[in-house]
Design a protein that fits this description.
InterPro entries: NAD(P)-bd_dom_sf, Sc_DH/Rdtase_CS, SDR_fam
CATH topology: Rossmann fold
CATH class: Alpha Beta
Organism: Agromyces agglutinans
Order of helices and strands: EHEHEHEHEHEHEHH
Pfam families: adh_short (PF00106)
Number of domains: 1
Family: Belongs to the short-chain dehydrogenases/reductases (SDR) family.
Shape: globular
Structural class: alpha/beta
Largest sheet: 7 strands, parallel
Number of helices: 8
GO molecular function, one term: oxidoreductase activity, acting on the CH-OH group of donors, NAD or NADP as acceptor
Strand order of the largest sheet: 3-2-1-4-5-6-7
């Protein structure tokens, strides 16, 4: 793909605020042909769509759809609308996610928290990608990108966020499998990038503390790293680099030793104790 997304069609989920909005701003700044924003918060989405539309000054079509990604039927309905009005996206960024934290698993809402978390974080990216992948594959002469925003939490267990960690582990497994499948089938025009960041200071993880060697990340830094990796078609983005170290230690150390050295010693297992999230 070119060094920018100039002229490309993008679809970004969870785009009304936070990281999703930041990716949309980057797309508009680079002169994307169109940017479609999906979010369930209608008011925030309307504001973001209006502000980005004015910033685009007619160079980029900015459109927003209110979509609850926890409803699989809504995904199919709005995907059909996108294909009809804009066409198949060149870049799909599965950014939307939710977290219900600071409680042990048995203290959560009798399965509802788990069900919603798995639907939005794990199932929705699969359903969204499935809607658009046939069109992406068919356009064999144009580079396409699928970016799946997972989490470092999906690479190791973490207390007080069991369902979230499970949903992101599922997303990582599916995303990397999809990457290999596309390569194996010869659809090399479609590149999949899996992103596993630690905590980011967007408000989603307000109150959480960065473990040793994994400070809370600034959104601008994450957006720039993910964006450049997406354009190159990199398969995996781990932020910060200590995420890779923790994975290596998890493979090398006996489980109880890992618990003591990394979980307790690095502070990973205490990182969610002060979590409040967005108010």
């Amino acid at each position: 793909m070119a060094r920018t997304v100039r002229g490309a069609k993008l679809l970004i989920t969870g785009a009304a605020s936070g990281m999703g909005r930041s990716y949309a701003e980057r797309a508009v700044a680079e002169g994307a042909g169109s940017v479609t924003l999906w979010d369930r918060d209608g008011d925030a989405l309307a504001r973001t769509t209006d502000e980005l539309g004015r910033a685009a000054r007619g160079r980029t079509i900015v459109r927003g759809d209110v979509v609850d990604l926890g409803e699989m039927g809504a995904i199919a309905k709005h995907a059909q609308k996108v294909r009809k009005e804009i066409g198949t996206p060149d870049v799909l960024i599965n950014n939307a996610g939710i977290v219900r934290g600071n409680r042990y698993f048995w203290e959560t809402d009798n399965g509802d928290d788990t069900r919603t978390t798995m639907r939005v974080n794990a199932l929705a990216p699969m359903y969204v990608a499935r809607e658009f992948l046939p069109g992406m594959i068919a356009d064999a002469y144009r580079e396409k990108r699928v970016v799946n925003i997972a989490s470092a939490a999906g690479t190791l267990g973490n207390p007080r966020m069991a369902a979230y960690a499970a949903s992101k582990a599922a997303l990582i497994g599916w995303s990397d499998s999809l990457r290999v499948e596309l390569d194996q089938a010869g659809h090399t025009n479609v590149k999949v990038t899996t992103v596993t960041p630690s905590y980011i200071s967007t408000g989603m993880f307000a109150g959480a503390t960065g473990p040793l060697l994994a400070p809370v990340l600034e959104p601008e830094y994450v957006v720039d790293r993910v964006w450049r990796s997406m354009l190159r078609g990199d398969p995996l983005v781990e932020l910060p680099r200590s995420v890779r170290l923790s994975r290596a230690l998890r493979a090398l150390l006996p489980t109880r030793v890992f618990d003591v050295v990394v979980g307790e010693g690095f502070g990973v297992y205490r990182s969610m104790q002060g979590f409040t999230g967005r108010r």
